[in-house]
Amino acid sequence: MFGMMAFVGISAYFFSRPADEIHWQEKAVFSPFFIGAIICLGFSWIFHTVCCHSCKVGKLFNKLDYCGISVLTVGSFIPWLYYCFYCRLVPKVCYLVLIFVLGALCTLVSLLDRFQTPKFRPVRAGMFIALGLSGVIPAMHFVITDGFYEAVHNASLGWLVLMAFCYIFGAVIYAVRVPERIWPGKFDIWFQSHQIFHVFVIAGAMVHYHGIIKIANYRLTLGDCTDIVAI
Predict the structure, then answer these.
(1) Is residue 230 in a domain?
(2) pLDDT value of residue 82
(3) Residue ranges for the binding site for Zn(2+)?
(4) Which of the residues 59, 148, 189, 202 has the least number of beta carbons within 10 Å of its own beta carbon?
């Protein structure tokens, strides 16, 4: 709940800025990230509130909980890809399509009953890890074309890596069921793997917000594109 409220507040502040401070185009580009964060954290809050209502309601919102992770991850990549490949239409579109496809697959895995059993828990975690790692391809592309220094200092690569670490580490904790598998019954209410997973999701989202703010500010200081680059 607190994570969702934090992003509601941040997004309200961001969108309330006057046009001479933040243009409407930038507000539109950041929208998928804010929407993804609010949906993800909102579904998580609702799930943990109503999961004890009934088996049917609990299963439904458990699915939506994981769908929210997919929405947040996809929404996180959109502004980064937009500014990173600001003047490169073809790679920008290709990478956006890739992230949308992986996000759709993660959503599908989250919604289908077949994948809700403990047997497929590693599959679900693996899909989310693949979604998080999908950012490696455009990141390497940018490093090759623009150089490592440019990627780290101006394209927020370091912040992207830190965000990916938060998401992936949280997913691994969830997959291996630590710490409750080591100390059964000791973490039934607090500090279970699912809670740790979402803490890392919040941390990753905050880190990413800082990163895309930096790359957006840098990109906008360069002005409009003089020409469209092919790669």
Answers:
(1) no
(2) 92
(3) 48, 194, 198
(4) 189
What is the model's pTM?
A: 0.82
Could you tell me if residue 43 is inside a domain?
Answer: yes
Domain that residue 152 falls in:
2-221
Q: What is the DSSP letter of 59?
A: H
Residue 17 has pLDDT above 60, yes or no: yes
Q: Is residue 226 part of a domain?
A: no
Percent of the chain with pLDDT over 90: 25
Cα separation, 231 vs 228, whole angstroms: 9
Of 67, 65, 47, 66, the C-alpha closest to 57 is 47
pLDDT at residue 37 greater than cutoff 60: yes
Looking at the 3D structure of the chain, how many domains does it have?
1
C-alpha gyration radius of the chain = 18
> Which residues are documented as binding site?
48, 194, 198
| Residue 226: per-residue pLDDT | 66
Domain for residue 231, yes or no? Answer: no
